[in-house]
Design a protein that fits this description.
Length: about 150
């Protein structure tokens, strides 16, 4: 039996984290420039990731099908994001995003364990080599679903 898929959004001024999956699986994740919001909306409406594949950070670039709900973190500019999604007819829910960036940094290292000497350092001292907005978006989604 297939589990429903959800989308998490970590809003930002210049870019946003975008994650599709459920509490256990991250199907697709990307960090998308805000000016390409229309591409992300199109992907959510048609269920395919092709238009945003160039910003992919995790998961595959295949189609992900119907999304049950979109969870938007209540951080920077979330009202603007919620309005854009609402105007597109996509059902959204604003949710708490406190501490998601710190959790996303830890999650990055669990998904991509440090190698060689770096593995001897505590993960709290390591900085991921890329932004983790996509993983923060997945945490926003997972946290909201787990609280139900």
């Amino acid at each position: 039996m297939n589990r429903p898929l959800y989308c998490g959004i970590d809003p930002g001024r210049e870019k946003f984290g975008f994650a599709v999956g459920n509490t256990e699986i991250l199907s697709f994740a990307a960090i998308i420039p805000f000016e390409n919001m229309a591409d992300a909306l199109e992907c959510l409406l048609d269920g395919g990731a092709e238009r945003i594949a160039s910003w992919r950070t995790e998961g595959t670039c295949k189609s992900f099908g119907a999304i049950s709900r979109v969870f938007i973190g209540n951080g920077t500019g979330h009202e603007h994001y919620a309005g854009i999604f609402r105007d597109s007819g996509i059902v959204t829910e604003i949710t708490d995003e406190r501490m998601t960036t710190l959790e996303a940094r830890d999650l990055y290292w669990r998904l991509h364990p440090p190698k060689r000497l770096w593995s001897l350092l505590p993960r709290s001292l390591l900085t991921p080599p890329r932004p983790v907005d996509d993983l923060a978006a997945w945490i926003i989604m997972r946290r909201t679903l787990a609280s139900r």
